[in-house]
Amino acid sequence: MAKISVLGAGSWGTALSLLLHNNGHEVILWSVIEEEVKMLREKRQHESKLPGVKLPKEIDITADLEYSCKDRDLLVLAVPSPYTRSTAHSMKELVRYGQIIVNVAKGIEETTLMTLNEIIEEEIPQADVAVLSGPSHAEEVGRGLPTTCVASARTKKTAEYVQEVFMSPVFRVYTSPDILGVELGGSLKNVIALAAGTADGLGYGDNTKAALITRGIAEIARLGIEMGAKSQTLYGLSGMGDLIVTCASVHSRNRKAGYLMGKGYTMEEAMKEVKMVVEGVYSAKAAKQLSEKYHVEMPIVDEVNKVLFEGKSAKDAVMDLMLRDKKMEAPVISWDMK
């Protein structure tokens, strides 16, 4: 049994606290929001974000960050990506040397283009930082539906420890040494999911979505490989797997926000309607900046940025994608005979 604190009591943090409790661990669930702590203590469920998923009384729910970090074997950082740096900064003096922090959020910081693991390592240099990612909606993990993820860390020992802590009969965990690939796949897929949702909102069909998913992973892989990630990671669970579920699932907040924009909502209206942090909106500008920095063509990312921040209509964005110059699907493949 491990002593674990889950920092962030949104839908994902709540679902993981239940998973870890069911795995036999001693769990603290922390939120910075006093009203959220009060609601979780009284109702033993997150009424707005994860209704119906009951938390047993053994899970300790608190707003005390020092209490949550002290004498814990593992800290799970589950706050939305825009708050990763500020939360990590608050934790800095509370984390002992070598303490394992598992980041389970997905995103890229717009101002620095840093991944979330890089942010945590910068803010808390004494920590041993790992990542857990993959196709894993909280609504299904909270209900105990079979799910598979990837744990990655700087060392095999840490990755295997995280694997052991989280693995269960309904939550299978693989390990990977490619932290960058795992993080990029989880972050960039949210931008593509906005495009897929927008196509749904416009009334387009499965053909359109399949094209966006397939060409989307091609964009993610081009950028990731140029940055040093491994193609096997980007075409695995934390890349292609997460992209498929985020583009297709009714649980996906990014797909839902895109769907609403396809129906004519502005970005601000769509985010307000979703009522949760839409990570793809925060990652879209960073993805575009990375594509420019590494000279990688990412037309879907470009069009998403134009819809989000330049007032371009979603329908025109899809049309411009269709009318791009003729291309080979895989330029690295050549004909034996020309």
Descriptive notes:
There is one protein chain. The chain is globular, with a radius of gyration of 20 Å. Strands 3-2-1-4-5-6-7-8 form an eight-stranded mixed beta sheet, sandwiched between helices. Helix 4 (84-91) links the parallel strand 4 and strand 5. The protein is of the alpha/beta class and 338 residues long. The model has no long low-confidence stretch (mean pLDDT 93). The N and C termini lie far apart (63 Å). The protein has helices spanning 11-22, 34-43, 65-69, 84-91, 116-123, 138-141, 156-166, 179-201, 206-227, 231-234, 237-248, 253-262, 267-274, 279-293, 299-309, 314-322; strands at 3-7, 26-30, 60-62, 74-77, 100-103, 128-133, 147-153, 171-176.
H/E element order:
EHEHEHEHEHEHEHEHHHHHHHHH
DSSP helical segment count: 16
Poorly predicted segments: none
The residue fraction in helices comes out at: 40-55%
Layout of secondary structure:
Layout lengths: L2 E5 L3 H12 L3 E5 L3 H10 L16 E3 L2 H5 L4 E4 L6 H8 L8 E4 L12 H8 L4 E6 L4 H4 L5 E7 L2 H11 L4 E6 L2 H23 L4 H22 L3 H4 L2 H12 L4 H10 L4 H8 L4 H15 L5 H11 L4 H9 L16
Parallel strand pairs: 1-2, 1-4, 2-3, 4-5, 5-6, 7-8
Antiparallel strand pairs: 6-7
Short précis:
The protein has helices spanning 11-22, 34-43, 65-69, 84-91, 116-123, 138-141, 156-166, 179-201, 206-227, 231-234, 237-248, 253-262, 267-274, 279-293, 299-309, 314-322, and strands spanning 3-7, 26-30, 60-62, 74-77, 100-103, 128-133, 147-153, 171-176. Strand 4, helix 4 and strand 5 form a beta-alpha-beta unit. It is built from 16 helices and 8 strands.
